[in-house]
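Hey, can you fold this?
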Amino acid sequence: MRVAAGLPAKRAANNHNLRMSRTPSPPAPRAGAITDVAGIEVGHFSDPRRPTGCTVILAREGAVAGVDVRGAAPGTRETDLLAAGNLVQHVHAVMLAGGSAWGLAAADGAVRWLEERGIGFDVRYGTLPIIPAASKEPPAEGNVGAGSGALVGKLFGVHRAMKGGIGTASVTVHGVTVGALIACNALGDVVDPDTAQVVAGARTEDGRALLDTRHALLRGELPTPLLAGTNTTLGVVATDAVLTKVQANRLATTAHDGLARAINPVHTMSDGDTLFVLATGRVRLAGDGPGMTVLGAMAAEAVARATVRAVRAARTLQIGDSRFPCAADLGQG
């Protein structure tokens, strides 16, 4: 499974030799990570030739999965399999990739990697992975993997955008953990839901301050025409709770509340916003444990925190004469 976002990288999409990135992140309080969920591993590949890459979220033993696609311009592969009425009950990895439609080919490499290790769905004549090296350690954040070329705040022109990235967070309640990994390449601004302050997004014309896209639109400022397929926020929400396929799909829907808290505007006609859910089933919900309502609140919170961390962990990106500052450059790190 994968969805595409970021800057084009046709050749990098075919590289299936994924390795864990060691790019250091800026100092920030730990907010947990998706790898806090038992049974989940993460690996990044960042192309050294251009700002693009891909990220794999791996569940070697399989996980019940769901998905909710909210953006109007998604690039996806095999998401129909996750509908509650369809055959496949478990998946083994989710691929998030840069490179727009070219990035779809990155999933072929993940499939080969899993097949070589006998991980997948038994189809009699072989093992078919339903989506390499990955790690249980907290994944790197910022300008790595699927966040390598991510930008945010492009509604008034790419020249006024800022650096997006990839971020992770987790929440634990009564022994059950929900974690999120978000690659934020949003059209809109990223907002800290705890303070309602814009953290990164469209800048003023002189580039020195944040514009605040929501208020600019309501004042009547008109957006700039956009190149299709250049915006999307992708993510995976994982939990160690035992969920059915119906519940996993419902949790993916609820998790989008976190994107709505942290991105404005979100789910636009030019975004491909997509969230997957993986339930590894390591913790069975007890009668007095968190039910679906609590899990939904946890998922939305983890998504919102991971989205904010994606831009706070990012670093300034220079592409030719174009410079895309990070949140820290504008005092928001």
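Oh, and this one too while you're at it.
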Amino acid sequence: MTSPHLVLDGVSVVLGGTLILDHVSLAVAEREFVCVIGTSGGGKTTLLRAIAGLLPTTTGSVSLAGTPVLAPTARTAMVFQHFALFPWKTVRANVEYGLRVQGRSEALGRVQRLLDALHIGDVADLYPAQLSGGMRQRVGIARALAVEPELLLLDEPFSSVDAITREKLEDEVLGLWERHQRMTALLVTHDIDEAILMADRIIVISGPPGRITFELPIGLPRPRSTQEIRSHEDYPRIRKLLWDSLEHRDVRLPELT
């Protein structure tokens, strides 16, 4: 790994008197795409919110490019599971929101390119209530990418849509990251297949309380698509390693081609 861009050092989080995360340490390189998987209740979303500065750490620290993260910052953008759009704003206004808050009107030109890339250019003047779930999630993704963050955080962004839409969104987001954005990215998901598709490295969190119990580099070639990855000869072995790690079985790393 090159010098770390995001560093978590012994991060613990206590909420309501309950230990949710227990001394989690993690280093993520600049432009690395890391996926975090684990069973329900393991603290994955809490981890993401602590990284975003939305939750205080009880012990330990989070830093981005050497600067402590103590509160939300414009250097980080987050895509939420349940859209989190402004219902009174149009699609275009939702996507432009972060840029306008940051006073970056000179960057508004990229909004239309993102709308078109995510296939929502023709609904730019509609409101969220007029859109399908898949379209609303595209708006949330476009809003996050519009500000060109150093760190992109994705909290199960595809889990609220149907299977076909999910696969399309996975390929679209991955394609944008591979071709244009290449910011540091951290995605939380329950889906092993999604993690293998997206990640340079997969982290397994088990709990409660949440602890890192396994990590696996994913050396599959890029660019990737869902269908190509699933037909790769190493795919079944990678998937089994991750499945076994989630079931707390003894995992030994084989040589992957």
